[in-house]
């Protein structure tokens, strides 16, 4: 009986020690840092170049049906962004060195972005996100990040009054360090949704 009692006491002590060890581990274990904008931007900034296909659907109040276009996007950090539309009609839009170049057929227009603040805001929302350029984005937008590293949505809301008259919100969705969608909601209720799929190879 005495031996059995000692064994029981020893068992209780062991259980208490195990419980105490578990409690200490829970209390003292390092806290996982919350998924935040800084972490997202740090990951995106690692992408020095990229190539992706896109399908863009525009919902315009004046039209009965949405307008769809498709093509590819090419990005080279920190500031070169090209959108090549193949369907329904060929078009190229290039942002580089402070200029916006638009080519449609034989027509080619070159605009200085500094003369068009609204264009800067649009292009920076995409370029700044792809480049992980937090400072550039915060000059123009307030940032709000939702979700997790596996599936996140970054909402951009314009700060400037002029931009607020045009755009209500831009929502950029992705996973890890990859942008998968861009949705632009305009104040006139028109909106566009671009679905992006990363391409491999040159």
What would you give as the CATH superfamily of the largest domain?
A: Lipoprotein localisation LolA/LolB/LppX
CATH class of the largest domain: Mainly Beta
- Main sheet: strand order: 6-5-4-3-2-1-11-10-9-8-7
Rounded to the nearest angstrom, the radius of gyration is: 26 Å
Please give the CATH architecture of the largest domain: Clam
Please describe what this structure looks like.
The protein is an alpha+beta fold and 202 residues long. The protein has 2 domains: 31 residues; 162 residues, Lipoprotein localisation LolA/LolB/LppX (outer membrane lipoprotein receptor (LolB), chain A), CATH 2.50.20.10. 30% of the residues lie in helices and 43% in strands. The protein has 5 helices and 11 strands; from the N terminus they run ααββββββααββαβββ. Strand 4 and strand 5 form a beta hairpin. Helix 3 runs antiparallel to helix 4. The protein is globular, with a radius of gyration of 26 Å.
Task: Name the descriptors.
202 residues, alpha+beta, outer membrane lipoprotein receptor (LolB), chain A, eleven-stranded antiparallel beta sheet, 5 helices, disordered N terminus
Quick rundown:
With 202 residues, the protein is of the alpha+beta class. It has helices spanning 2-28, 37-44, 117-131, 134-140, 161-164; strands at 49-59, 67-76, 80-87, 91-96, 99-104, 107-112, 141-147, 152-158, 167-175, 178-186, 191-198.
Blueprint of the fold:
Blueprint: H1 2-28, H2 37-44, E1 49-59, E2 67-76, E3 80-87, E4 91-96, E5 99-104, E6 107-112, H3 117-131, H4 134-140, E7 141-147, E8 152-158, H5 161-164, E9 167-175, E10 178-186, E11 191-198
Antiparallel strand pairs: 1-2, 1-11, 2-3, 3-4, 4-5, 5-6, 7-8, 8-9, 9-10, 10-11
């Amino acid at each position: 009986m005495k031996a059995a009692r000692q064994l029981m006491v020893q068992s209780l002590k062991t259980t208490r020690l195990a419980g105490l060890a578990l409690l200490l581990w829970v209390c003292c274990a390092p806290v996982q840092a919350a998924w935040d904008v800084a972490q997202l931007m740090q990951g995106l900034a690692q992408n020095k170049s990229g190539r992706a296909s896109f399908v863009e659907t525009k919902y315009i109040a004046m039209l009965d049906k949405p307008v769809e276009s498709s093509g590819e996007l090419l990005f080279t950090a920190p500031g070169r962004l090209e959108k090549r539309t193949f369907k329904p009609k060929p078009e190229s839009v290039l942002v580089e060195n402070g200029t916006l170049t638009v080519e449609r057929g034989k027509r080619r227009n070159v605009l200085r972005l500094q003369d068009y603040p609204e264009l800067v805001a649009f292009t920076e929302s995409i370029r700044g996100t792809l480049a992980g350029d937090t400072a550039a984005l915060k000059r123009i937008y307030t940032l709000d990040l939702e979700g997790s590293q596996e599936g996140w949505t970054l909402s951009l809301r314009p700060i400037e009054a002029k931009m607020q008259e045009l755009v209500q919100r831009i929502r950029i969705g992705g996973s890890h360090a990859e942008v998968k969608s861009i949705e632009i909601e305009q104040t006139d209720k028109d909106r566009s949704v671009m679905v992006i799929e990363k391409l491999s190879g040159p």
